[in-house]
Amino acid sequence: MERGVSEEWETRHSLLIRAKDPSNEEAWAEFVTYYEKFIYHLLHRLNINADDFYDLVQDILVKLWKNLNSYEERRAKFRSWLAFVVRNTVYDYFDREKRRNKALRREHEIANHLRETPVTEVEAMIEKEWIIYVTDLAMQRMEKVFSGKAIRVFSLSLDGMSVEQIAEQLNLQKTSVYTLRNRVKARYIKEIHALMGQLER
In which domain, by residue range, is 162 found? Predict the structure, then answer.
């Protein structure tokens, strides 16, 4: 059974707008809640050694905090700006470690690769990973709103199973499968749009 909706996204100002205010500690904490996990994920995708994750994430968050107020949406999408910050912070981090003779050869190679990689390539990777991240967040919200069976129907449909196959596997009428799938799908799309609207603007 559906248990309500996420009205919070419909009534609150954009997270980015609120987080730009350095005195709004609550907004910044919420910003970190969403973006810290995503930054960890990006570092993993960039093949960064896990031992360096914490320091790098903190460096990136500090740079975002210091410069968020100067970010202007009309000049670049937030993910484009984020790509620039991530790329440069990772490069600067390993460049510092190199000067301290602490970085290993593998880290040197990563830093050199990032230096030679256009920001547009990092941005494209971030774009792809962000879509995956947001859709996963939306699915987590769905699991709090719909029954387990409704989520199961929708998940199986995403896996490519037909209505007939889902009905047989879950012992449901085909009409019930159609109803559950469409109800969750409509809400899933709404959640994705709401999340993107709040987290990117």
Answer: 146-201
